[in-house]
Amino acid sequence: MNVVIMGAGLSGLVCAITLEKNGITPTIFEKRDQTGDRFVNGEIMLDILNRPVEDGIAHLAVEYGIYLKPTSAIQKLKLYSKNEKAVIEGHLGFSNIRGRVQNLFESQLEQQTKSPIYFNSNKTYAQLLSEYTHVIMATGDGDDVAETKFPK
User: Fold this and answer.
1) Which helix (H) or strand (E) holds 124?
2) CATH number where 130 lies
3) How many folded domains does the chain comprise?
4) Digitized pLDDT (tens) for each residue of the chain, 152 residues in all
5) Residue 150 per-residue DSSP state
6) Structural domain of 9
7) Which of 39, 80, 123, 152 gives the lowest tally of CB atoms within 10 Å of its CB?
8) Could you tell me which of 68, 21, 61, 23 has the C-alpha nearest to residue 43?
């Protein structure tokens, strides 16, 4: 089996790590010059949204052997509406910074994969399909999928 992954973002890198754990070493092509989002932004992962999983970061490590270190833990959440205010405290989840910053999730995943990554690639699905038996699209760009002509 000769597998290629289009995209070295979160999905593509996790896919590569999972394949490696199952004895398959894919090749990864990324159209940008490095891993990571183009824009710096923040995100939060609230454990309450992932029930029944209580700690999404620990769950990824225990169940899938994927290790991520978020920017910080969220211990307090203040909610405001027009007439009310509420405060929730305890282990609520994590915050993370995305973009081209140190220790972003994509960089952490890139360090965990053994698969070769080719940056600045402009290869299309059709080109890769002619060279590989399996092509996994993990580009994060809906236009890539919309423009692709899949074989029947």
Assistant:
1) none
2) 3.50.50.60
3) 2
4) 899 999 999 999 999 999 999 999 999 999 999 887 777 888 999 988 888 888 989 999 999 999 999 999 999 999 999 999 999 999 999 999 887 777 889 999 999 999 999 999 999 999 999 999 999 999 877 777 777 766 66
5) -
6) 1-37+102-152
7) 152
8) 68
